[in-house]
Design a protein that fits this description.
Elements: H1 3-13, E1 26-29, E2 38-42, H2 47-55, E3 60-63, H3 80-90, E4 94-97, H4 100-103, H5 109-116, E5 120-129, E6 132-140, H6 144-153, E7 167-176, E8 191-204, H7 208-218, E9 226-230, E10 234-251, H8 252-263, E11 269-270, E12 277-287, H9 292-297, E13 302-306, H10 310-316, E14 321-324, H11 327-331, H12 334-348, E15 354-357
Parallel strand pairs: 2-3, 2-15, 3-4, 12-13, 13-14
Antiparallel strand pairs: 1-4, 5-10, 6-8, 6-9, 7-8, 10-12, 11-14
Length: 368
């Protein structure tokens, strides 16, 4: 297996196109063609984690937080980032980071947090907008099934729990082939009218190129007429945060104690609340307090996230129980999900890859 293969596995789960525009996700150090036999997973590429990777003769370090948040002006062993980059390059260790794309992915950071809190019926809290595109293509009647099949096999036409979704409209297409053209129907210089089908399908933006390539490969026309539209529809599988529930309500006190225990948090901060019991729970791993109103609108009893500011606690007071369980603590559960997903795919491909979570993953924040 090579680094490019690992990238494809990760991005079939967490496409880079759903990351924040300014986020630095993907391969940070290394070549797509370098071999990978041992992978270490961590929230951060700290100096301790990199030393662990060197000691274990790791080929690839996968992190949630990118090694490079900002453009580098220099690489020097006199500073922290420079020392880490130097060590990684000298030991031929690649680095791949899945940050906000993994935050917004189905089964990503917030979903892992929801599972850690023993929630059921988990769905996306705030579904992503502007992920979907609509593709409309005009096809001769006899080729409509062939084109439709090629496009859907390339990933188009999935809506929620349904696949191969499309809409077809019959009509008449017109064209006049100019000198040098090789028309599939009719002859050069003649105005042609032919029965055609307009096939409409939706596809995530990152699959549009593949869908168009598949469509062109079976379309009979020399020049294919098609349209690609941006949509404002939400996508069921991609978005921020997650929401789930317990089968039976639990007391607020027991819930807070459970959050500490299940996340291994030394302390949790929370807002004033009149709620005596908890059943419906919204979560967002990491800094997610901007989703407070979304959690309230979703009728959640509690919203668990991290990095909550003073005034945000005031906004939540007596409306919803707002819990700050720590940035590290709310994101840590995703690491084992990364290992599980990669291991399952490597097994499916008959690849023998050693994948583990670094024992040197540490919380940089301490409590006194």
């Amino acid at each position: 297996m090579i680094l490019g293969d690992v990238q494809r596995i990760m991005e079939s789960w967490a496409p880079r196109e759903i990351a924040w525009e300014r986020d630095t996700v993907g391969i940070q150090i290394g070549s797509k063609n370098q071999p990978v036999r041992k992978i270490l997973v961590s929230l951060d590429a700290s100096e301790e984690v990199i030393q662990d990777a060197v000691r274990k003769k790791t080929d690839l370090l996968i992190t949630h937080h990118p090694l490079f948040f900002h453009h580098l002006r220099r690489i020097s062993p006199d500073d922290r980032i420079g020392r880490m980059v130097t060590s990684l390059v000298q030991n031929r260790i690649g680095v791949y980071s899945a940050h906000t794309n993994l935050d917004f992915a189905a089964g990503g950071v917030s979903h892992a947090l929801a599972l850690q809190l023993k929630l059921t019926n988990i769905t996306v809290l705030k579904k992503n907008l502007a992920v979907l595109k609509k593709i409309a293509v005009f096809v001769p009647l006899d080729y409509s099934e062939k084109v439709f099949t090629a496009m859907t096999e390339a990933g188009a036409g999935a809506i929620g729990k349904y696949e191969a979704c499309s809409f077809e409209t019959k009509g008449t297409g017109t064209f006049r082939a100019r000198k040098g053209a090789k028309p599939f129907i009719g002859s050069v210089g003649s105005l042609e009218r032919t029965p055609e089908v307009r096939i409409e399908v939706v596809a995530p933006s990152w699959l549009v190129t593949d869908v168009l390539r598949a469509m062109r490969s079976v379309h009979p026309y020399e020049e294919v007429a098609y349209d690609v539209y941006s949509l404002a529809n939400t996508h069921e599988q991609f978005g921020a945060g997650a929401i789930g529930e317990y089968k039976r309500s639990v007391t607020t006190q027991n819930f807070l104690a459970s959050v500490k225990r299940w996340l291994g948090a030394e302390t949790v901060r929370f807002s004033r609340t009149q709620k005596k019991t908890i059943r419906r729970v919204a979560v967002c791993g990491g800094s997610g307090s901007d989703l407070l109103e979304t959690a309230v609108d979703a009728d959640a009893d509690v919203f668990v996230t991290a990095d909550v500011g003073y005034h945000r606690f005031q906004e939540a007071e007596n409306r919803i129980l707002l819990v700050d369980a720590g940035h590290y603590e709310t994101e840590l559960p995703i690491l084992h999900h990364i290992v599980q997903r990669l291991s399952a795919e490597c097994k499916r491909q008959n690849e023998r890859i050693e994948i583990s979570v670094s024992s040197k993953t540490r919380n940089p924040v301490f409590s006194y």
